[in-house]
From TrEMBL:
Name this protein carries in UniProt: 3-phosphoshikimate 1-carboxyvinyltransferase
Keyword Amino-acid biosynthesis attached: yes
Molecular functions (GO terms): 3-phosphoshikimate 1-carboxyvinyltransferase activity
HAMAP family: EPSP_synth
Residues given in the record as 3-phosphoshikimate binding sites: 32-33, 37, 179, 181, 332, 359
Pathway: Metabolic intermediate biosynthesis; chorismate biosynthesis; chorismate from D-erythrose 4-phosphate and phosphoenolpyruvate: step 6/7
All copies of domain Enolpyruvate transferase, residue ranges: 19-441
Biological source species: Blastochloris tepida
Major localisation: cytoplasm
GO CC terms in record: cytoplasm
Catalytic reaction list: 3-phosphoshikimate + phosphoenolpyruvate = 5-O-(1-carboxyvinyl)-3-phosphoshikimate + phosphate
GO terms under biological process: amino acid biosynthetic process; aromatic amino acid family biosynthetic process; chorismate biosynthetic process
Lineage, top ranks: Bacteria, Pseudomonadati, Pseudomonadota, Alphaproteobacteria, Hyphomicrobiales
């Protein structure tokens, strides 16, 4: 059906050196969250879903293969253009082989939700990074729906065998951690249950699942809950109608060239079509507070999402305090924000980062280690990260970044190195292919010295 997501056989060390201005116009790859969901909704709709701009990163390709294993016909028509012939809610096939999600928490957890609502049994696995990540956060609510874990590694971790419910129950569930993956798993399981499934979140997280449920014809209501939260109610057993999906550019990927342009004197970079969903744009809000010159040229709706063209110029940044309640809107952007903070004047304090400890690596520790390797003082106090900025161009560099199988640490380490005199080595850039396969050539095309 599809290209192989590839395995991580070879580690690739790379060095980034002090670079001149970054100039040009780019488009970041398709949004990873929307890409996973486009395939999954394609699987659950009856008929043919056409997708344009799909991220062809290893994480998403693993989800495409899982959709095929569960009964969809998945075809690549051209660059970013995919067609999924779905089976409809309730009609999944039992997969014959293990569903291997590689490095991807989103793929694994959302698909557990899908399987939980169907009378099929599936074995889930992933790479060494994914095997360390907590799965009980989705398995606990899915047990309420009626799914059973038949086997698992310690603490409910991968590899695990999940038996979906024969008669899934609608549940009302309050997520104990702010997680769009947990919310989405419960909603996807609820699709197959009769009646109302409700998820309550105390802090709103990215809302792509809710938006796509509505876009594919499900009856879904979203109302505010408390100061920062939401209550999402879905009526189960809809017939999902296929709908064309145009995937906007990923703000979490755009973040890397964006911050690089802010740090390198004389840079001016245009970034097209970046998703501007308010539940995803905490980084731009924070960088502006730090003094970043980021201009919005054209704000519009594309494929149901708000997108904008950005023009970014070199900026002298100042340290700020980043409130904990902003974390869900920029959860994947803290490693690159920390790189910006290292190049700012004064101290940046990022509060409430406990969720960073359970990503592809313990990102709180990995980011602090990365900065220290570059000669920047960084402390972890409880769930907060405190960075003593060196001022524009002031980071000495000269060390090695240990990526721990984490694409965002690898890309952050390279951007960090671009603004140092001594450069930074990054021990392994292979995992960048999970979310931003063309990162290295794209950066080189803008003038970045990476090699
Ligand atoms: O739902 C999603 O697509 C994602 C949710 C976030 O994870 P959590 O739900 O664990 O916060 C984020 O870190 C991840 O990259 C993508
Ligand atoms: C946390 C991330 O992804 P996932 O949870 O899907 O592995 C990420 O891309 O930064």
């Amino acid at each position: 059906m599809t290209p192989d997501p590839g395995s991580h056989a070879v580690t690739r060390p790379v060095t980034a050196r002090r670079s001149g201005p970054l100039r040009g116009q780019i488009r970041a790859p398709g949004d990873k969250s929307v890409s996973h969901r486009a395939l999954i909704f394609g699987l659950l709709a009856c008929g043919t879903t056409e997708i344009a701009g799909l991220l062809e990163g290893a994480d998403v390709l693993a989800t495409a293969r899982a959709c095929a294993a569960l009964g969809a016909k998945v075809d690549r028509l051209g660059e970013g253009r995919w067609r999924v012939e779905g089976v409809g809610v309730g009609a999944l096939l039992a997969p014959t082989d293990t569903l291997d999600f590689g490095n991807s928490g989103t793929g694994a957890r959302l698909m557990m939700g899908v399987v939980a609502g169907h009378p099929v049994t599936a074995r889930f696995d992933g790479d060494a990074s994914l095997r360390k990540r907590p799965m009980k956060r989705v398995l606990d609510p899915l047990a309420l729906v009626g799914a059973r874990v038949l086997e698992s590694a310690e603490g409910g971790r991968l590899p695990l065998v999940l038996q979906g419910a024969r008669e899934p129950l609608p549940v009302t569930y309050e997520t104990p951690v702010p997680s769009a993956q947990v919310k989405s798993a419960v909603l996807l399981a609820g699709l197959a249950a009769p009646g109302e499934t409700t998820v309550i979140e105390r802090e709103a997280t990215r809302d792509h699942t809710e938006s796509m449920l509505a876009y594919f014809g499900a009856d879904v209501r979203v109302v505010p809950e408390g100061a920062h939260g939401r209550r999402i109610t879905l009526i189960g057993r809809p017939e999902l109608r296929p709908a064309p999906v145009r995937v906007p550019a990923d703000p979490s990927s755009a973040a890397f060239p964006l911050v690089a342009a802010l740090l390198l004197k004389g840079s001016k970079l245009a970034i097209e079509g970046v998703m501007a969903n308010p539940l995803r744009n905490g980084l731009v809000v924070t960088l502006r507070e730090m003094g970043a010159r980021i201009e919005v040229l054209d704000e519009r709706r594309e494929g149901g999402e708000l997108v904008e063209d950005l023009v970014v110029q070199f900026s002298e940044l100042a340290g700020v305090e980043v409130p904990a309640e902003r974390a869900p809107s920029m959860i994947d952007e803290y490693p690159i924000l920390a790189v910006a903070a290292a190049n700012a004047r004064g101290v940046t304090r990022m509060r409430g980062l406990s969720e960073l400890k359970v990503k592809e690596s313990d990102r709180l520790a990995a980011v602090a280690d990365m900065l220290r390797a570059a000669g920047v003082e960084a402390q972890i106090e409880g769930d907060d990260l405190i960075v003593e900025g060196k001022g524009p161009g002031g980071v000495p560099g000269g060390g090695t970044v240990v990526t721990h199988m984490d694409h965002r640490i690898a890309m952050s380490g390279l951007v960090l190195g671009l603004a140092t005199d001594a450069g930074m080595a990054v021990d392994d850039v292979a995992f960048i292919a999970t979310s931003f396969p063309d990162f290295l050539p794209l950066m080189a095309g803008l003038g970045a010295e990476i090699g």
